[in-house]
């Protein structure tokens, strides 16, 4: 069968798709990736065929959306627990969906992206479209050509949680208050492929015919959706391994990373590099900090810190006794795969704070919210996860449990069966 992956111009989101794409290709299926022109080089380096759709997205410090920062455009803003935000009821849900449809979703896959994607699907005729969970154009293009389609999550399924709250709260409103920004937005997209909007079609386009989930069961929101779990397999991009990694560390090694998304896609992280590096002054550890010059700035770097612009976490983490990270899925996935005790310095961009607290409850580390982050508290948290063996044991158990989740190659037959069931053309 032919499988098309769709994703917006983000290296982190692209890397999330690569292991499954290669598992399908290794099983003999044709695979292609559709993305913004910005990401062509990134996808080409993975060895997968790629087609450009839409115009350049220009992810970085300033978005195209009315001069807003990408943090404002893309973030779900979970600086407070979702249960607290939920207390806003219908007004909160309506405001969130209005913002999401009018700015966030439209920004990531606008009409030029959709039109180009539909034209390519009409030409290439995929049997299955797997779309990054923020790239709804993939679902609409699949509908246009009759392909089956599935979402690929990149973290907690906040979109479905908000969508289900929105539907339930909307049904409780008097008719004059039942505004429907989501239906209006989808209607405009469906009009472009000559398809009439219906409430039944709405849920399929928002949540997919099924959902592929790389998160382990203990870090997952309750849902009634059809989930296909897949083991997270690290893909850190094409890179060499530095010589110093071949030498055993002279003292306990700690990794500090803020991930790709905050550096490349958002450009305005709220976590201070000074707070992070200052916490390690005088500690009897070797800190490997994957920060570039823009993140470090003029901060004084302690003598026990090795600054590296990039090093593959899949190779670095097995040498580490602990890791300090922001809980992006790519980083967090690598941490869980290698069973490393963690300190999560959550920068609440999407689900980092919520997932960090889930990990803390699971015993694998300590989560520090932005308001709690000081050099003293970070230092205390790092020493705690280094010295308390319970964190190592919990992290090792997570690693063991991950081996029980189906690997991408084991998921391929499931996708074949579901495609045959849902494909219309």
UniProtKB/TrEMBL annotation:
Entry-linked InterPro entries: EryCIII-like_C, EryCIII-like_N, Glycosyl_450act, Glycosyltransferase_28, UDP_glucos_trans
Domain Erythromycin biosynthesis protein CIII-like N-terminal: 22-259
Domain Erythromycin biosynthesis protein CIII-like C-terminal per the UniProt entry, residue ranges: 276-418
Keyword hit for Glycosyltransferase: yes
CDD domains membership: GT1_Gtf-like
Taxonomic superkingdom: Bacteria
Keywords: Antibiotic biosynthesis, Glycosyltransferase, Transferase
Name of one Pfam family that matches: EryCIII-like_N
Similarity section: Belongs to the glycosyltransferase 28 family.
PANTHER family on file: STEROL 3-BETA-GLUCOSYLTRANSFERASE (PTHR48050), STEROL 3-BETA-GLUCOSYLTRANSFERASE UGT80A2 (PTHR48050:SF13)
Protein name (Swiss-Prot/TrEMBL): Activator-dependent family glycosyltransferase
